[in-house]
């Protein structure tokens, strides 16, 4: 799919890292639009942060000069953007982010006057469609309980669903454990089970059987046998990580509920949070990653819960066709 032709409109854009395979395409028509557009680009690496800082400074302070240095893309308004403008009854200046898995795009929508409208998710594959439907279900449930804001619009275009989410002011950063606990407490459903009877554990066992990953079932049964604690039923985010949480002066708000589990297990999101930091940000592996998890999780049955988490990750990777060597290697450290 030609992303600019399908999702953008006429105007000035900058493609990062390049025009051949862009990860983000940001509108830079004028300084105020550029300032909003760069909020769509949220890198966590030092290199990415430095690139964003330099480009944002140039386009937000020396826009006319910068557009002469960087290539401008002038394209005709897409049919999809024209459809949205009619639906929302306002002119739109979109910027585009391509998801890492390339299963969807995220469009930042603003007006020509730089009023931020929201963020629109549009699937590019069956996987993207499935994840979008999961996210809609999550938002329907969580917004009805006042945990997160509701979406602005859910509709279809050329038989594909799309979801328009409201803008949330703030930034993504690593937050302290106490704030994590406060945030995760909002997802607690106030009913508890022993691990052997917990709906999430029973579902993991069923999925292991379904995907012929029976070698992990004895490990789950061993964990169930050794556990002496009841665990809450929770709404499980599924991809709980610093880059999926917006923090401002008032609160921390999670987003991207594409891996949402309605009948989730307490503490799996907490482990996922530190697992993503340790693995992806600090580049830890094997024993170093396991020690990092145990240090930060610091729960009475941390070992049992980490083992459950690793099997859950293996199952998820298997269903998505991804390798799971890291998870198996860490799990084997317990043997």
**Could you give a short account of the major beta sheet?**
7 strands, antiparallel
Helical percentage: 40-55%
Counting helices, strands and paired strands, the structural category is alpha+beta
Series of H and E elements = HEEHHHHEEEHEEHEHHEEEEHHHH
What separation lies between the terminal Cα atoms?
47 Å
What does this structure look like?
With 335 residues, this protein is α+β, with helices and mostly antiparallel strands. It has two domains: 3-120, no CATH class; 177-332, Alpha-Beta Complex (Aminoglycoside 3'-phosphotransferase, Chain: A, domain 2). Helices cover 44% and strands 19% of the residues. The strands form three sheets. It has a seven-stranded antiparallel beta sheet with strand order 1-2-3-4-5-7-6. A three-stranded antiparallel beta sheet has the order 8-9-12. Strand 4 and strand 5 (116-123) form a beta hairpin. It is elongated and about 65 Å long.
Strand and helix layout:
Layout: H1 3-7, E1 13-16, E2 24-27, H2 31-37, H3 46-61, H4 63-69, H5 79-88, E3 93-98, E4 104-110, E5 116-123, H6 126-144, E6 153-157, E7 160-165, H7 177-185, E8 188-194, H8 199-210, H9 217-226, E9 230-236, E10 245-247, E11 252-254, E12 261-265, H10 268-281, H11 286-297, H12 302-320, H13 325-332
Antiparallel strand pairs: 1-2, 2-3, 3-4, 4-5, 5-7, 6-7, 8-9, 9-12, 10-11
Helix pairs in contact: 2-3, 3-4, 8-12, 9-12, 10-11, 11-13, 12-13
């Amino acid at each position: 799919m030609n992303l600019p032709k399908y999702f953008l409109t006429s105007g000035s854009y900058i493609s990062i890292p390049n025009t051949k395979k862009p990860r983000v395409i940001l509108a830079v028509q004028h300084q105020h639009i550029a300032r909003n557009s760069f909020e769509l680009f949220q890198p966590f690496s030092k290199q990415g942060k430095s690139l964003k800082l330099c480009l944002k400074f140039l386009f937000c302070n020396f826009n006319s000069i910068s557009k002469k240095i960087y290539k401008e893309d002038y394209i005709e308004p897409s049919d999809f953007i024209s459809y949205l403008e009619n639906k929302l009854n306002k002119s739109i200046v979109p910027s585009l982010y391509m998801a890492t898995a390339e299963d969807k795009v995220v469009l930042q929508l603003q007006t020509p006057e730089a009023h931020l409208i929201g963020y629109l998710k549009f699937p590019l594959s069956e996987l993207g469609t499935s994840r979008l439907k999961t996210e809609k279900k999550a938002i329907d449930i969580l917004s009805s309980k006042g945990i997160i804001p509701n979406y602005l619009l859910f509709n279809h275009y050329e038989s594909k669903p799309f979801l328009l989410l409201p803008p949330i002011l703030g930034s993504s950063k690593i937050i302290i454990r106490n704030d994590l606990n406060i945030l995760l407490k909002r997802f607690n459903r106030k009913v508890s089970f022993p691990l052997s009877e917990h709906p999430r554990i029973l579902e993991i066992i069923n999925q292991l059987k379904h995907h012929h990953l029976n070698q992990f079932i004895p490990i789950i049964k061993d964990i169930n046998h050794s556990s002496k604690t009841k665990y809450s039923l929770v709404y499980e985010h599924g991809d709980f990580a610093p880059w999926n949480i917006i923090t401002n002066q008032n609160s921390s708000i999670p987003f991207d509920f594409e891996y949402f589990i309605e009948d989730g297990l307490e503490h799996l999101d907490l482990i996922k949070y530190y697992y993503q930091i340790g693995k992806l940000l600090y580049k830890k592996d094997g024993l170093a990653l396991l020690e990092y998890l145990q240090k930060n999780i610091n729960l009475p049955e941390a070992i049992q819960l980490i083992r459950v988490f690793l099997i859950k990750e293996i199952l998820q990777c298997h269903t998505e066709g991804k390798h799971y060597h890291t998870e198996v290697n860490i799990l084997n450290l317990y043997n």
